[in-house]
Every structure is written in C-alpha cells, then in structure tokens.
Amino acid sequence: MSDALLVTGLHKNYGDHAVLKGVDFSVRRGEIFALLGSNGAGKTTTLECIEGLRRYDSGTITVNGRTGIQLQSASLPEHIRAMEAVRLFAGWNRTSADETMLSSLGIGELSGKQYYQLSTGQKRRLHLALALIRDPDILFLDEPTAGLDVEARISLHRQIRRLKEQGKTIILASHDMAEVETLCDRIAILAGGKIAFIGTVPELNEQVGRHYKITVRVERPGQTLSEYREELFPENGTETYETYESDDIAETLLSLLGQYKKDGTVISDIRVDRGSLEQHFMKIAKENNR
Ligand SMILES: Nc1ncnc2c1ncn2[C@@H]1O[C@H](COP(=O)(O)OP(=O)(O)OP(=O)(O)O)[C@@H](O)[C@H]1O
Fold it and tell me: Which intervals hold domain ABC transporter (predicted)?
C-alpha cells in the first residue's frame, strides 16, 4: 500500500533566505507522525507547502487521500457561533454536518456560543471539528495543544488517538517533547533545511548514543552539619547527591563503586537516567544547524 504522504527534494526560499534545502520524508498510512524542529526550522512552511497553502521552489509532494487542516486559533470571525462555523465549512465542502460534529469532540454544549467566548482549548476543538468535516484520511495539526492546560491536553490527545483508531493518518508539528513521545509513532527532525532524523523515539535514542546521567545519594558521616548545609541538599541532613555523566555505564559504575568503597562512603541510592528526547533532539538540531 502506498504511503499517505511522500515529500522529495522540497526547496523553499523566502527571498534569499533558503529555509527548505531538500526535504525528503514519507508518512505511512494510519500513523501519528510529528515534525519537530527549533523555532524557525521550517515546520510550518513544510506543512503549508504540503497543504497547498504555500508555493515552493522545487521538489515533489504526493498526498494520497483527502486532507483536513486544523487552522490556527483566531482565524475565525469573533462573533460567529460554533455551529454556524461548522455549517459554513460543511457548505464549502459540499457536505452536511450536524451537532454530533461538536458533541463527539466534547463541545456539543458550546454550539450556540460565539467564537470570542470560547477558551483556547475550546477553540482548538472547534478547529479540529472543522478539519474533520470532510472526513479526511490525513489530518494536519500545527501545534495542536500549545497553550492548553494539562487536562485539556490529555483530552485532546485522547481524541487524536481515537482518530488514529478510525484509520486516519495524523501529521503534526510540535515543540512539546512529552506530547511527541506519548502520542507519535514516528518523528522527523527538521534542521538546517533538511530532515536530520526520521524514525521512532527508541531509534533516535539508539542513534544519538547511550548517554547516561548517574545520581548517587551518599552519606558522609565524617562531615559536620554546617558542612552539609553548604552542600546542594541541606534538607537531607547527613546525605547529599553527586552526579556524573557517562557514555559507558558499566565502566563508570564500576569505577565509582570502587572509589566509594575505598573512601568508606555509604551509598543510600543510585539512579541512572538515559538522556531525554529533549536532549537528543537538541543534539541533532545543534549538529545539523552548524
Ligand atoms: N511569509 C514569510 N516571509 C518571509 N519569511 C518567512 C515567512 N514565513 C516564514 N518565514 C521564515 O522562514 C523560516 C521558517 O519559518 P517557519 O514558520 O516555517 O518555521 P517553524 O519551524 O514553523 O517555526 P516555529 O517553531 O517558530 O513556529 C523562519 O526564519 C521565518 O522567519
């Protein structure tokens, strides 16, 4: 089966500012796919070229299916009522829509409210409802949960997952690493005008390397209380924390434990954390922006 989206050699300049310098990626049918990148990397430009909202200089874009686009907030007239907006969009798309469009997204009771009376989260849902009017196969979401509180974000994530279960392909741009990690099947990182990485989050972790942070909680019985106070965690009384970074976890742990044993230091806890998606993203973005 063909991919939902195929982008090859996409170039886009704004005047003499080359933003996209040969962007290549594909999105599989039925996946939730995130386009990540630093501010100004070109995520919105890429999405707008794909959506047909922006001209590009060269490259090919193949979209296999009907598309739906979640517009940015503040893009509707202030006094339009939610249900009027739904009917208007349905009319433009030569289809019909009833209140279930809104109630299925949990905003049925808002159908008579004017746009300016809606909260940010309610506006986002209304825009999602409008994007769904054509019953799209491929849904584009640009920063779908920016500015939403935790509850609204979780609820919107649930709705996005439900859309995936219905077989839709979802392509989103996001800055929220937690969102990307929990929601997306695959990610692409846009940096230096090209796709610097494409794959799953575990594949990114693998590619960036095994960088670990080791936190050791130690007790140093020889120290006085005033000495402890000068340390990082005075509230812990006789305990403190020491942190280390390592690419070779076994080697570092062995040498640390040997050292502590020699010193007679009592260890009360050891924690090992892998680098976060955020750190890995920053590393890739930095390397490719040089
Ligand atoms: N209409 C435009 N005219 C000129 N330059 C533009 C235009 N739109 C975007 N740019 C520039 O193109 C670059 C990419 O912008 P774009 O909005 O695509 O990035 P982005 O990755 O979506 O950023 P953000 O995360 O900040 O939303 C930026 O340097 C921006 O200033």
Answer: 5-217
Model pTM greater than 0.80?
A: no
Residue among 142, 159, 149 nearest 37 (CA): 142
C-alpha 43 – ligand 1 centre gap (Å): 8
Helix extents (H) in 6-96:
43-51, 82-92
- Grade residue 234 by pLDDT with cuts at 50, 70 and 90: very low
Rounded distance, CA 42 to CA 279, Å? Answer: 20
Q: Give the CA angle between residues 94, 99, 105 to the nearest 5°.
A: 105
Of the listed ranges 86-90, 214-218, 220-224, the one predicted with least confidence: 220-224
Measure the CA–CA gap between 118 and 147, rounded to whole angstroms.
14
Reported in sequence order, the residue ranges of the chain that DSSP labels E, i.e. its strands, are 5-14, 17-27, 32-36, 58-63, 67-70, 138-142, 169-173, 186-191, 194-199, 212-219, 239-246, 266-274
Q: Tell the residue nearest (CA) to atom 24 of ligand 1.
A: 39
Alpha carbon distances (Å) from 63 to 8, 111, 281: 12, 32, 27
Cα separation, 151 vs 161, whole angstroms: 15
User: Nearest CA to 35 among 192, 142, 166, 139?
Assistant: 142
Model confidence at 1: pLDDT above 70: no
In the chain, ranges of CATH 3.40.50.300 domains: 5-206
Distance 229 CA to ligand 1 centre (A): 49
Q: How are beta strands 239-246 and 212-219 bridged, if at all?
A: antiparallel
Q: Which helix (H) or strand (E) holds 249?
A: helix 249-263
Give the separation between CA 196 and CA 36, rounded to whole angstroms: 10
**Ligand 1 pocket: which residues have CB below 6 Å?**
14, 19, 37, 39-45
CATH of domain 5-206: 3.40.50.300
Percent share of the chain, pLDDT over 70: 91
